[in-house]
Design brief:
This protein has 508 residues and is α/β, with parallel strands linked by helices. It is built from 9 helices and 25 strands.
Amino acid sequence: IRAELISSGGDKLGETLIQPDGNWKKYEASFKSSATDLKAHINIWFEGQGVIDVDMISLFPGDTWKNRPGGLRADLVQLLADLKPGFLRFPGGCIVEGHDLSVRYQWKKTIGNVEDRELIVNRWNTEFAHRLTPDYYQTFGLGFFEYFQLAEDIGAQPLPIINCGMACQFNTAEVVPLDQLDPYIQDALDLIEFANGPETSEWGKIRTQMGHPGSFNLKYLGIGNEQWGPQYFERYILFEKAIKARYPEITLVSSAGPQPDGDLFNYASGALKNTRAEIVDEHYYRPPVWFRENAARYDNYDRKGFKIFAGEYAAQSVGTASPLNKNNWDCALSEAAFMTGLERNADVVVMSSYAPLFAHVDGWQWTPDLIWFNNLTSFGTPNYYVQKLFSVNRGDYVLAMQRNNLPLTGEDGIYASAALDKSANEVILKIVNTSDKVKNQEIVLNTTRKVLPKARYIVLQNNKSDGMNSIENPKAISPVEKEFTLKGRKLNATLEPYSLSVYRIKLK
C-alpha cells in the first residue's frame, strides 16, 4: 500500500509504504512533509496482485494536542483552553437527537478502539438547503472518552448531554413509548459509571482499559437537548427518578425548549415547576437588540426556583440560522451587554456558553460561530474575545454596581457588572458602552479597605459595528491592556464608544 501527500499544485510532499502481512489489523507508517500546503491531499494505491480489504484510512499530523496519536488540533484546543472554561458541554445540541432515533447519538458506540466505532450519518447532512452535505458522516474518532479527556485537559467540568428517547422535533419528532424507555435510561446510568465508576465496575473497567483508571469526576448530566412539550417532561421525570435513586449527587440539566419566550417556553416554565428541576437550559438565538433589551432578564427572577444554564446563545446579525449571519462587532458588543446581566445574577445563572463553538471557513452550515479555522490556522472572533474577557476576569462574589440605586442595564447605552476576585484581592468592573459617544464616568468604590493606586485596564473596542476578524486579520478586534493610577477610591473612567472595558483594581 503506497501513500503520497500531494500539494494543491500537484507536487509530491512526502510518501510512505506499508507492507501488509495478510492479517486484519491496524497498520501505521509516518513520513515528513517537505512543505506546508493549505489544500494538499493524499493519494493511496496498491501494488501487486490479489484482493485486499481496507477500512478507516486516516492521516494525522504528529503535533496534536499533547502529542496524542490521532489527537485533536493543538491550535484549536489552545484557543478553547485560553478561555479557561468552567465546563465543556458535549457532544453538542441537536446532534444528540438525530433525524430519527436510528441515527441518534449513542455514546457507547463512540468509545473503545477508534477503528471499531460504528460510523453513522450526521443529522446535518440534509438539514440546510443552502449547504447540503450528503457525505457528512460521523466516524466518532472524537468520542465520549476524548470529550471527557479534553474537559480534564482544560480544567473544565464535563457536561455530557444524552438522548431522552426523542428524535429532533424539527425533523421526524419520533419518540420511544414510555414502556420502552428503559434502555435509554440505562445508557444514562452506564454513562455515569463509565465516567465515575471504580476500575472493577463494568464500565469503569472499559474506561481504565482506554487509559484512564481514575474518575472523570462527572457532576452534571443533561437530559435531552432543546426538547419541548408534554412528551419531554413525562420522559424527563422517569430519567430523573432512576438517576437520582442511584446517583443522588449528580445534578441534572433539563430543557426549556428552543426559544427564550413564546408558547413552548411558557409551557416548559409551567411544567418544570412540577418536576424537581435543578438547572434548566435556555437558548437565545436573537437579533443584537434583543440581547441589549434583555440584560435585566434575571434581575427579578424567583430566587427560590431552579437555576439557569444559558446553554446556547449568539446574536444573529441577519436572522436565526441565516447563512448571511456574521460575527460582527455589533453582535459581540450586544452579547457583552447581555452578559453583564448574567454575571450580575450569578446566583441564578450558574452556567453560560456561546454556541456553536467551531466552524471551518470552507465547511460550515451554521453561522455565526465563536472560533473559525481553515486547514492551517485559526482565529477567535470578536465574540470570542468578549467571552474570554468575561471568563478570565471572573470573580468569586458579585458586587453591586449602581447608579441612583439601580443596576446599569442600558441607561445612556451603559451596561455594567462588578465582582470581587478574592484570591487576587481585586475588584473587577466590566462596563459596556453601546453608544457612539465617549462616556466619562466617575466611579466610587464603596469600601473601607485601602485601594492601591496601581490598576489594570483592558478594552475591546471598534468604531465599526460591522467590523470583524478573519484568517487574514485575526486580531483586528482584540483586547488592549494598559496600566493606570487611581487616586483614592475614585476612578475617572473614559469609556470609548462601542467598547467593552474591564478594570481590575487592587485592594490591600
